[in-house]
Write a structure and sequence with these properties.
Structural class: alpha+beta
Radius of gyration: 29 Å
Number of helices: 8
CATH class of the largest domain: Mainly Alpha
Oligomer: single chain
CATH superfamily of the largest domain: Transferase(Phosphotransferase) domain 1
Strand content: 15-25%
Length: 328
């Protein structure tokens, strides 16, 4: 696809400095607001869509998401949404700026490069992240997805480059892909999209599972379910194995085999792992365990009382056999 040459977008009350990112669904620009604060501005162009309907649908999604973005600590805050001066060329939204990959919150506009999960994994290619950090990142993002899904939205492109860090904490970004859950427009990235396709809450959870696989193993998501070249040792080994079980569950290609089917369940599993507790059992497993325990308790109780005086009193005495007189 040829590179499109476009002028710097005109964003009201902002000085657009330079482009810092982009893809099939828009460009990200570094800009300075009237207060002097540096912001990230996502610009989505109408000409990148086949028809106006798709463009307007994406715009409606960001309008719906804008107020709720500030209600959760693991979602990138959207500060303003607007359209191009002519009203048709593009829409845009202004976001908080993420950390610099090298200098954190000390931003040099000339050299700024956003710190994303992808940037971190590229710096340490093939390196496994600390298990506790993996659990923390996974929990934050699972809770953010649950926040979206409860409000009828899906992200549709969860991947390392769409996870940025703000003040050192992971946040879900590239919200321009957020849409009403179930919308069938195909978006996503190979290896992060489940076999059933994107657009559902369960598909978002699958994608997050592949993100966790990459940082927990140091391998590419296309290598799933290969184990890392070296396994953790000591106390960390048990926690890593439990984390790996969760990842294998949510990345299971067959939907019917996935025990964790939504973001709330994933967050609960990771929260319990973080606290050193066992995972909750599924409904069928709980029923079976309860039934077995009930039968065992009943048998044990009977063994304790079967020879007691009370049982002997309650048990009818056997009737004596009737003797028969034989007449000769």
């Amino acid at each position: 696809m040829p590179i499109k040459i476009r002028p710097n977008p005109a964003i009201p009350d902002h000085e657009v400095l330079r482009k810092i990112g982009g893809g099939a669904y828009g460009e990200v620009w570094l800009a300075r607001g009237v207060t002097g604060a540096l912001r990230a501005v996502k610009v989505v162009w109408r000409e990148d869509f086949e028809d106006a309907r798709g463009f307007e649908r994406e715009f409606e999604g960001i309008l719906k998401f804008e107020p709720m973005s500030r209600d959760h600590p693991a979602l990138v805050n959207i500060l303003h949404v607007g359209r191009s001066p002519d009203g048709v060329s593009f829409y845009y939204y202004v976001m908080e700026l993420g950390d610099d990959v090298s200098t954190g919150q000390e931003i040099n506009p000339v050299e700024y490069e956003p710190r994303t999960l992808r940037a971190d994994t590229h710096q340490g290619a093939g390196v496994q992240w600390d298990t506790n950090v993996c659990i923390d990142v996974g929990l934050r993002l699972a809770e953010a997805l649950d926040h979206l899904h409860e409000r009828g939205l899906a992200h549709r492109d969860v991947k390392p480059s769409n996870v940025i860090f703000v003040n050192g904490r992971a946040k879900l970004a590239d919200i321009g892909l957020v849409a009403t859950r179930g919308q069938r427009t195909f978006v996503g990235t190979e290896g992060f999209v489940p076999p059933e396709g994107p657009g559902s809450s369960q598909a978002d959870v699958y994608s997050l599972g592949k993100v966790l696989y990459e940082i927990a193993t140091g391998k590419d998501r296309l290598s799933f379910p290969e184990l890392p070249d070296s396994m953790p040792t000591g106390i960390d080994r048990k926690r890593w194995l439990e984390l790996n079980k969760i990842i294998c569950d949510i990345c299971e290609p067959r939907i019917s085999k996935r025990k964790i089917s939504n973001a709330a369940q994933l967050a609960d599993a990771l929260r319990r792992l973080q606290r050193g507790k066992r995972r909750r059992q599924s409904g069928g497993a709980v029923w079976m365990t309860t039934a077995v325990l009930a039968l065992f308790a009943g048998w044990a109780s009977w063994e304790m009382v079967k020879d007691s005086e009370w049982v002997r009193r309650m048990t009818p005495a056997p009737k004596p056999a009737l003797s028969q007189t034989v007449q000769l």
